[in-house]
Design goal:
This protein is mainly alpha-helical. It is built from four helices and two strands.
């Protein structure tokens, strides 16, 4: 499914970025430009990123550390 129409970013692109070590949503935005134009996709893309990270899509230590830090910060 396409989340970001402005930059044509799909759920597969988000999954791939997480698997390749993307450690935060900010980093995902830097790498893919998702949710950086009109912003309409921000919430869906954000949820997808965190769902992939929580589902074990993170294969690198850097991504796991970033997700753990986010969860700790949320309390």
């Amino acid at each position: 499914m396409i989340f970001c129409i402005c930059h044509r970013i799909s759920d597969r692109d988000i999954t791939r970025a997480v698997r390749e070590g993307c450690a935060s949503f900010d980093e995902l935005q830097d790498e893919t430009r998702v949710a950086t134009a009109c912003g309409a996709c921000h919430d869906c893309a954000h949820q997808s990123f965190h769902a992939q990270a929580a589902a074990g899509g993170c294969l690198s230590g850097r991504a796991q550390a970033g997700h753990a830090a986010l969860q700790t910060a949320r309390g």
